[in-house]
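Q: How would the structure tokens look for this protein?
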Amino acid sequence: MYSQGTFEGAANTESGSRVFVYEVVGLRQNESTDKTNYPIRNSGSVFIKVPYERMNQEMRRITRLGGTIVSIQPSNALQQVNGQASASVNTEAMSNATSEATNKTEGNGKATPIAAQQPKNKETKGNTMTQAKAKKESHSDVPVNIYRPNSPFIGKCISNQELVGEGGIGTVRHLKFDISGGNLRYLEGQSIGIIPPGLDKNGKPEKLRLYSIASTRHGDDMDDKTVSLCVRQLEYKHPETGETVYGVCSTYLCFLEPGADVKITGPVGKEMLLPADPEANVIMMATGTGIAPMRAYLWRMFKDAERAANPDYQFKGFSWLIFGVPTTPNILYKEELEEIQQRYPENFRLTYAISREQKNPQGGRMYIQDRVAEHADELWQLIKNEKTHTYICGLRGMEDGIDAALSAAAAKEGVTWSDYQKELKKAGRWHVETY
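A: Here is the predicted structure in token form.
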């Protein structure tokens, strides 16, 4: 929505800087601004004063609001003739502003080598806290709760495949559901609810359980007719009786036969969505079935059919997956991950933490937090880049170790990690979904 006050407040102070006036048409209006008689509004045009150092920022903001800049003039050269402004375009001013903004952000989106990310001018040197404050993206158009628990969508199981290799621990299944009979839509990073059949211990219908979606918005078959999940059968010892207890919904799903109906709700969630910027850097830290949203991200970034289906999103940034599992046979989607690594070595880095086979520097098991500590300085440099988003999904126990490792790296530059992390969250660049 267009707000005149937003632009005027941001651009009305000259304070010694060169000031330009943008003539803009096509800005989206709201009922309030349409009724207001602003003196600078003439014949459908809006004239906005912009200091030189904010020119590119205002260009981007105007574009987001649907506007088109038809002229740029120095403020002292703007002449009003019968209420109309001069329409000649000051292309030099526009070119200079664009060039300066490009120079200031050189290196963004290019995570390797890390040394290339170091500040290149004194204006940004050491200003790591400011770098965290990228503008949070709006997610107003994200589909949410198309199907609710009192009226779920009835999908159908198409396939149910084992993901754990021979000799691995437990069972993890990749399930694909047919959703062609309804209006279920979703985005990478969202979840759906599954309502298992039967009654709970209180004699009431079972409640839904949420699972992260493991497929892109187009589905595994690229026909917009399926959704996939990655489900581990929950298994634990009862603390009092010592008997083995199996999760209700996870067991139901792991043994679901192809052709069977399944009650689906959702989608839900905006916390784990990918940035729209194809030049963003994406750090992914996952344990076990926390790989589900990461698989969706990686398919969207790198799969040939996905790239063909999404001409407006051609990933050019850098992504790094740190994946924690107990044994090699437990590396879920191993062939897919290693194929992407082989084909896109400049854009994708894959690091495993295999706890029962690898040792950390102290001689103990190698967990994901140990891998983060091993690469903490490199990760810290990448996180400081304002184009970087970090995603954490899986067991909650890894969070403290990740924070400890990054705290040590940040402290070397005099930065308090807990404060910096808060800025990342405010900026929408730190995404966590743990259990």
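The chain has three domains: 4-102, 153-268, 281-434.

The radius of gyration is 26 Å.

Upvote if useful.
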